[in-house]
Amino acid sequence: MSSHRLPTPGRFVRVDGVPLHVVTEGSGPLCVLSGGLGMAWFDWDAVAALLAPHRTVVRFDRPGLGLSARAPAPPTLAAEADRIARLLDALGHRGPATVVGHSLAGFHVEAFARLHPERCAGVVLVDGSIEEDPRPLLPRAVRTAWAGGVAGALSAAGLPRALGPAARRLVGRASTVGSHPPHPWERAGYRTSRVARACVLENATYPYQAAELAALRRDRPMPSVPVTVLAAYDGSETAGRLRWLERQRALAAELGGRFAVAAPAGHLVMADVPESVVHAVLDLTGTGRDAAPLA
């Protein structure tokens, strides 16, 4: 079946004027899943299926990604943290939530915890991005304008339609240790100029979001909530891989959290070992041992 005939999962919620695609499943304490750079709601399918019996699981597409409409402005860290809070407001979830961020979204959920401490019940960073001393070289406006121009040129040349899904598949293969079939929605999203633009802008604003987080860490303390840093490990003994584990361990120490390893896993931990993400969430408050066994 082609993707355009598939029923659209979830619904659309307008947040700050932007229609966001949201999927909510399960029951119990609230848990929000946010993917890394260029990721979509379906990247969490396996995690959501295991977690929904124990949690109310909310996963959403950031502006321009997945099925969400594009935003009028490039992303900033504070705006992404606020977006999580406003999305939960729009869904009627006023209580605290456990927030799970993969890769770049690790910046977003940590910022959410620092900026909205009363809304945060816990944090899980899934192979989260790390920048110890971020120093962007160009003014943000210059880099984002350049990125917008690149995205426009790619779209004018028809490259997203021709190469977008294949590029997404290559990234997926390079970021996993297992073999995972293409998702039916990959072609629908990654062949559009909307998603291509969002990916380019997220990449372009990455160093500025890292610098924003470094400043936030100086000014806004983490709330007293449990934190787990879950690092991917593919089993290799290369210096780079071992160094990455040490950087993840140091991040856990800096945040006063627990360090755990997901293995064997590539960067897309949620695809390779979704049960590791689920256990990190359930064990965050010590409830994992009392929950029903994972399927």
Structure description:
This protein is α/β, with parallel strands linked by helices and 295 residues long. Helices cover 43% and strands 16% of the residues. α3 (105-115) links the parallel β5 and β6 (120-126). α2 (77-91) packs across α3, α3 crosses α7 and α4 (140-156) runs antiparallel to α7 (193-219). The longest helix has 27 residues, at 193-219.
- Oligomer classification: single chain
Helical residue percent band: 40-55%
Question: Taking all residues together, what is the mean pLDDT?
Answer: 94
Please give the alpha-carbon distance between the first and last residues: 28 Å
Which radius of gyration do the C-alpha atoms yield?
18 Å
Tally the helices: 10
Shape: globular
- How many β strands by DSSP? 8
> What is the H/E order?
EEEHEHEHEHHHHEHEHH
Structural class: alpha/beta
Q: Order of strands side by side in the largest beta sheet?
A: 1-2-4-3-5-6-7-8
Brief rundown of the structure:
The protein is of the alpha/beta class and 295 residues long. The protein has helices at residues 45-51, 77-91, 105-115, 140-156, 159-174, 186-190, 193-219, 239-254, 269-272, 274-282; strands spanning 11-15, 18-26, 30-34, 56-60, 97-102, 120-126, 227-232, 258-262.
